[in-house]
Amino acid sequence: MIRIGRQDRVFILTGAGVSAESRIPTFRGVGGLWRNYRIEEVASPHAWARDPVLVWEFYSMRRRVAAAAKPNPAHFALAELERKLMDRLFLCTQNVDNLHEQAGSRRVHHMHGELFKSRCDTCRRAPFADEATYEPPASIPRCDCGGKIRPHICWFGEVPFELDQVFAAVDGCTVFVAVGTSGVVEPAASLVAQAGGRARTYYVGPELPVNAAAFDQCFQENAGRVLPGLFVSE
Ligand code: NAD
To answer: The CATH number of the domain where 211 resides is what?
Structure first.
């Protein structure tokens, strides 16, 4: 149980594990492979430059899987926590699916982008909603400027979104909770160290993350089981 006092500010970091019970596979779960490609080989600027058709095939598959998924009790528990804490909760996700929003969370910071948005790889046109799939024989979508339309995703080697806001929220939190993240992908993996010493730090997930030593307490269980009863707020 995690007690939330009236003065507490809570930072939640979710990873692929929070959506695992919604049947969206984690990267670890699929062995980090897709059609014998390592995930990094289809989710990087290098892959986009080399083979954008392959990249869109990968993200089209991910859009199909995510479009069929529904939020699970873990997503609903975090939406409920937001209703109680309002702006004393900062929900930061590494996930690109929209299950937090589907569960009712209003302010979700997608540090690795959003699967159902696209943007131009050349001009400054703002990212836009896009649920389409682009697979052969369909061709790569093009922007009016002539650039290629790419998924609005932070690929390996790119800088995550809204980092200033994320770091400021970690600095201001008194309770830090990471859920379903293996603690491998930076800079998300280091946020707990930034919060530690000042904030109480917790991890929720069936396996210990590689950065487990940085947490005060780990709840070694599935998120959908633990989160609905985890928070007690005054
Ligand atoms: P990861 O795949 O490296 O690790 C997933 C973690 O979730 C593991 O530690 C595993 O033990 C845990 N887990 C599995 N089932 C769980 C459950 N029921 N409850 C709680 N935890 C559970 O994922 P990551 O650390 O998020 O980092 C990898 C990258 O994968 C991120 O950049 C993210 O953008 C991307 N990703 C996102 C999605 C998504 O949007 N749903 C899916 C796959 C990967």
So the answer is: 3.40.50.1220
Residue 112 falls in the annotated catalytic set: yes
Spell out the per-residue pLDDT of the chain, length 234, in tens. Answer: 999 999 999 999 999 999 999 999 898 766 777 778 888 889 999 999 999 999 999 999 999 999 999 999 999 999 999 999 999 999 999 999 999 999 999 999 999 999 999 999 999 999 999 999 999 888 899 999 999 999 999 999 999 999 999 999 999 999 999 999 999 999 999 999 999 889 999 999 999 999 999 999 999 999 999 999 999 988
For residue 13, the CA-to-ligand 1 centroid distance in Å is 11
From 21, 24, 27, the mutation candidate for ligand 1 (largest count of ligand atoms within 8 A of CB) is 27
**212 CA to centre of ligand 1 in angstroms:** 15
Token pair for 166: 């994320």
CB of residue 16 inside a 6 A radius of ligand 1: yes
Closest ligand 1 atom to 181 CA: 25
Query: What is the b/e burial string over 179-215, where b = at least 16 CB atoms within 10 angstroms of the residue's CB?
Result: bbbbbebeebbebbebbeeebbbbbbbeeebebeebb
The answer to whether residues 87 and 186 belong to one domain is yes
This prediction's pTM: 0.95
Query: DSSP labels for 33-50?
Result: EETTEEHHHHSSHHHHHH
Q: Could you list the residue range(s) of the whole structural domain that residue 123 is in?
A: 29-68+117-153
The total number of structural domains that make up the chain: 2
